[in-house]
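Long-time lurker, first post. I've been practising inverse folding by hand and with some scripts of my own, and I keep getting stuck on stretches where the structure tokens seem ambiguous. Below is the full token string for one chain I'm working on. Before anyone asks, I'm not after the true native sequence, just a reasonable design that respects the backbone. If someone could post their per-position residues I'd love to compare against what I wrote down in my notebook.
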């Protein structure tokens, strides 16, 4: 488990900067997140995207397994959880239910490569606020995050 802090630096000229496109009420600002996904380039890219595009300083808890997430969430409260359903110690929608029990006030966003309406509905029925596909544009991902947090409040 790792905790990263971000001061949300401005994106350099070549990167898309969602902050300039989203006007949010004070209640929609996210202060802390957890990314529960196996170690690798996809997780690293998501964490970088979040640090680059969120409006305020954000703490990001990173866990590579349900066991690491369980340990982290015992002492930290987060506004939202990004969850990969292919964790080494639990597979599929079971991860959503277990994380919802651990952190009932957190919005859960599932990271998925499956563009399947049935799969998305099953994830929502299991407790997720939304499903984020691998090719989701940055602006859409950030908007989905803030909407999910606001719905959970």
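-- Answer (accepted) --
I ran through it position by position. Result:
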């Amino acid at each position: 488990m790792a905790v990263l802090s971000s001061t949300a630096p401005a994106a350099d000229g070549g990167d898309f900067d969602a902050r300039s496109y989203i006007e949010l009420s004070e209640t929609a600002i996210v202060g802390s997140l957890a990314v529960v996904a196996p170690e690798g380039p996809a997780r690293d890219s998501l964490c970088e995207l979040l640090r680059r595009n969120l409006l305020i300083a954000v703490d990001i808890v990173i866990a590579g397994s349900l066991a690491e997430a369980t340990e982290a969430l015992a002492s930290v409260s987060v506004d939202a959880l990004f969850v990969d359903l292919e964790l080494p110690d639990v597979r599929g929608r079971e991860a959503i239910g277990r994380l919802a029990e651990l952190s009932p006030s957190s919005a859960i966003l599932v990271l998925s490569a499956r563009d399947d309406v049935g799969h998305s509905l099953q994830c929502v029925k299991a407790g997720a606020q939304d499903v984020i596909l691998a090719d989701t544009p940055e602006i859409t991902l950030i908007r989905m995050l803030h909407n999910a947090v606001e719905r959970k409040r």
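A couple of notes from the structure itself: The longest strand covers residues 58-63. The longest helix spans residues 138-152. Happy to go over any region you disagree with.
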